[in-house]
Predict the structure.
Amino acid sequence: HSFLWFVKVWLPAVKAKGLEISGTFSRRQGHMYMDMSFINKALQHMTDFAIQFNKNSFGVIPTTPLAMHTPLMPSQSIDISLPLNTIGPVMKMDPLNNLQVAVKNNIDVFYFSTLIPLSVFFVEDGKMERQVFLATWKDIPNENELQYQIKDCHLNADTVSGKLQNNNIYTIAKRNVEGQDMLYQSLKLTNGIWILAELRIQPGNPNYTVIAHSTKIDQFQLLFKNY
Amino acid sequence: EMDDGLEEAFSRLAESRTNP
């Protein structure tokens, strides 16, 4: 299974005249979703719901309108999985994964912003051909590398590979040099950007090192969080 | 034969990274 991110309250009821929205993002069978719960904490019913996104770095837009066909009564909640795609207009946000959302109902229009986990953008065909991987790695200068420590991890290299593969981070090759496992990995984002990585695991050392190697270094910090 | 070459290339890469 792919990793499930924590559900967060995106829009507290006190800021939205009684409407509370909590949610998370997920990727299932090659599709992105915004999984949300709408709760009516007001004393009146709510109808006429609609959702809209501001332009964002990855061109994320809802694939369908919000499917809420019946009024949301006081104290009632509804779970909605909104399918998303990345064919919308692109505008670079800071941070890169920031998403600004507008939700309307019969009472008012409300706004919130949230961060989309980068892993939602890792596509299923992110396994780079081995020959292409080697050539690409050579073409990227070492200045385009960034290193990160993953602390307190107690899995072996194969388990790590399996877990990452479930999240569309693919191990292209594994080598053991002087007792240290070196995993060469690739992933591709929905916008076509490839990221190459080297993951180092030393026996008996719970701290792993991941070294990202890509021409697009602005996404590295987000990537490390996903590792 | 070509795949052997790739296997070796990855070994060389890993070694060069460990002992630059």
In short: The helical segments of chain A are 130-139, 157-165, 220-226. The radius of gyration of chain A is 20 Å. The CA atoms of residues 59 and 130 of chain A lie 30 Å apart. DSSP finds three helices and 13 strands in chain A.
